[in-house]
Amino acid sequence: MKRYMLTSGFTLVELLFTLAIVAVITGLAAPAMDNLIQNNRRHTAVSDLITMINLARYTAIMEQQTVTLCPLDKDKRCATDWAGTITAFRDPESDKTLDHDNQIIRISQIPEGGYWTANTSSRPYFRFMPTGIANYAIGNMIWCPDNKDSTQASQLVVNRGGRVRLSKDNNGDGIVENASGAPITCT
Known about the structure:
Elements: H1 12-63, E1 67-71, E2 86-90, E3 104-108, E4 114-119, E5 126-128, E6 139-145, E7 154-158, E8 164-166
Antiparallel strand pairs: 1-2, 1-5, 2-3, 4-6, 6-7, 7-8
């Protein structure tokens, strides 16, 4: 009776060499994955807020009533901290106060991996009239990543007509510019 020995397999040196190659490749791919995750978070936060602004404007037009979009404080009044939850709600009294939960159109939770800041003049809200116009409340919102890297930031601009647009990097430096042409900053 003949015995056959299997001689195929990996030696310890071959296995260590293979693990070293995998470790190097993983080390090179990790920063690219981090950048991909950061871009995905930004895209999600920006898309969600654009959808929310457009929905608030659309609701104001279709239901022929005032709609307000803002962060709410514990008393359900518009507050200034845009880094938290943002609510779009029907505001028939135009008093920037959520009177009943059935007035809520949509709630946007805190974006993961970043935060919103708003420049809405002296008003901590965006208000859409039954015509769709953003009456008395035009401005912009900047999304910044938690690491405050301005190259990963985005800016939304709401004009008087109630339309929203995304700012662009016009000079090619990797940072989007505000209406004055200055690069936006995350502070």
